[in-house]
Amino acid sequence: MTRIGILVGSTRPGRKADQVARWVHERATRRSDAEFEVVDLLDHPLPHLDEPLPALAGRYQHEHTRAWADTIARFGGFVMITPEYNASIPGVLKNAIDYLHAEWTHKAVGFVSYGTRGGTGAARQLRTLCELLQMAVVTPQVQLSLHNDFEEHATLRPGAHHIGDLDTLLDHVVAQSTGGRTALPTQRETDEAAIRRHVEGIIDAIQAKDLEGLRRFYATDVVSFDIDPPLQHVGLDAKLKNWANVFTFFQEVSYEMRDLTPTVGEDTAFTHAFGRLSGTRADGTAAGGMWVRATFCFRKIDGDWLITHDQVSVPLDILSGKGVVDLEP
Questions:
Q1: CB neighbourhood size of 151 (10 A)
Q2: If you average pLDDT over residues 204-232, what whole number do you get?
Q3: What's residue 184's pLDDT?
Q4: How close are the terminal C-alpha atoms of the chain, in Å?
Q5: Sign of dihedral through CA atoms 34, 40, 43, 48?
Q6: Short-list 17, 37, 24, CA closest to 162
Q7: What number does CATH give the domain 3-184?
Q8: Which CATH topology does 209-313 take?
Q9: Domain spans of the chain, in order of start
Q10: 3-state secondary structure string, the chain?
Q11: Number of neighbours of residue 172 by Cβ within 10 angstroms
Q12: Tens digit of pLDDT for each residue in 244-295?
């Protein structure tokens, strides 16, 4: 199986590149089409380029160069993590790249950059360098803003839209690394994957009791037919108020979903699934929850899939008019 290296391109104290690499690696390891490994330049200390011959010659004199060459040679492609320092890439990353030649050539590479403007200057220079080495540079890239994607400019909290960007970047790096044997996804497959990630994000936000996290998944005019009164909750504020009310009942929340089935069109989509909300009540007792039927309707708005309608229900006993809540999918 193709191996992709996630290269951490900064070694300075207080760096954020290691957080970004962990985020990329966590997302990448959900895939089954390649193996991913973090390569941290902190673990590969290289002096300023000290080889007497150009890297193009391929005759490395020093042991540290040969060890670095052996590491890079193991991978068929790379995701390079770079901050932007003075509109450029870190010197340590440039130095590490300059040590080698054949080990980089013809391999796929994609960039995840960060900085006050998303690290665009660094990514642009890195692209030029990698193209000069005849690497297969993919077009999609991820640009993280220090202002918007790092809490207090320190802790990585990437916006939800970056997940789709990252998945697209990984799609292209893997496809290029396998010589085209891994086909790039169709637009429908890309949209379906985005919707699945969207639902995963909702589950994560519910379990974290994160109302602001939930906010980014719904359209402002969402209409919700939830399990509790009234008949409908209209608008984003009403939807979040309903979730806030639910969270008051729990110390810890768990949400499980089964059989999620999306159907995707050009700019609208819907999914149906079974869901169960459970957890630990405010008094410390366990709440096992009940299985419900859930439907989500999406609309693509400014390039993002947002929920415009959701509905939750349970079957009814016709004679008694009471909900049947002890069924399982």
A1: 8
A2: 92
A3: 63
A4: 36
A5: positive
A6: 24
A7: 3.40.50.360
A8: Nuclear Transport Factor 2; Chain: A, (3.10.450)
A9: 3-184, 209-313
A10: CCEEEEEECCCCCCCCHHHHHHHHHHHHCCCCCCEEEEEEHHHCCCCCCCCCCCHHHCCCCCHHHHHHHHHHHCCCEEEEEEECECCECCHHHHHHHHCCCCCCCCCEEEEEEEECCCCHHHHHHHHHHHHHCCCEECCCCEEEECCCCEECCCEECCCCHHHHHHHHHHHHHHHHHCCCCCCCCCHHHHHHHHHHHHHHHHHHHHHCCCHHHHHCCEEEEEEEECCCCCCCEECHHHHHHHHHHHHCCEEEEEEEEEEEEEEECCCEEEEEEEEEEEEEECCCCEECCCEEEEEEEEEEECCEEEEEEEEEECCECCCCCCECCCCCC
A11: 22
A12: 998 998 999 998 888 888 999 989 999 999 999 999 998 889 988 899 999 9
Global confidence as pTM: 0.62
| b/e code 19-32 from CB counts within 10 Å (16+ = b) | bbbebbbebbeeee
Chain mean position to CA 66: 34
Contacts of 225 (CB under 8 A, 6+ apart): 231, 232, 233, 309, 310, 311, 312, 313
CB-facing half-sphere around the CA of 64: CA atoms within 13 A: 13
Place of tokens 């589950």: 203
Residue position matching structure tokens 């052996």: 70
Q: From CA 287, how far away is CA 208, in angstroms rounded?
A: 17
